[in-house]
Amino acid sequence: MGDATLLLSNRGSESHHAKYRLVHVVRTHRGADDRAYRCVFQEEDTQGMVGISVSKDLMVMAGEALKSNIMTMGPIVLPVSEQLLFLLSLIAQKILNLKLKPYIPDFKNAFEHFCIHAGGKAVIDELE
What we know:
This is FAE domain-containing protein. GO terms for molecular function: acyltransferase activity, transferring groups other than amino-acyl groups. This protein is mainly α. The protein has one domain (14-126). 36% of the residues lie in helices and 8% in strands. The protein has helices at residues 34-37, 58-77, 80-94, 121-127, and strands spanning 40-44, 50-54. Strands 1-2 form a two-stranded antiparallel sheet. A hairpin with a 5-residue loop joins strand 1 (40-44) and strand 2. The two termini are 28 Å apart.
């Protein structure tokens, strides 16, 4: 087992201590979808005890939220070469009606590190 200590600060004087710098943040809100809203829900049971109910839709909804975040983040962080390859693939499919597999951008060209939550394997499996 490992552990980590993290200090978040918005003070400019602390910036020289930082090992990493957060450049972009993307948030997507899935609450308008009733299945997403109710997939993890705090409620009272028949005995009056407050608890959390977890729906079977949790992995599907988490996968959709992650896919939405990746689609939103792509144009911001991907290099121009990856964006052009994606655009050419899209044009070939939609306009030229070629039966090609869609181009999946290589996000390793945009990020030095990926940090996936330990419980995120099931979400990644759902995306695949």
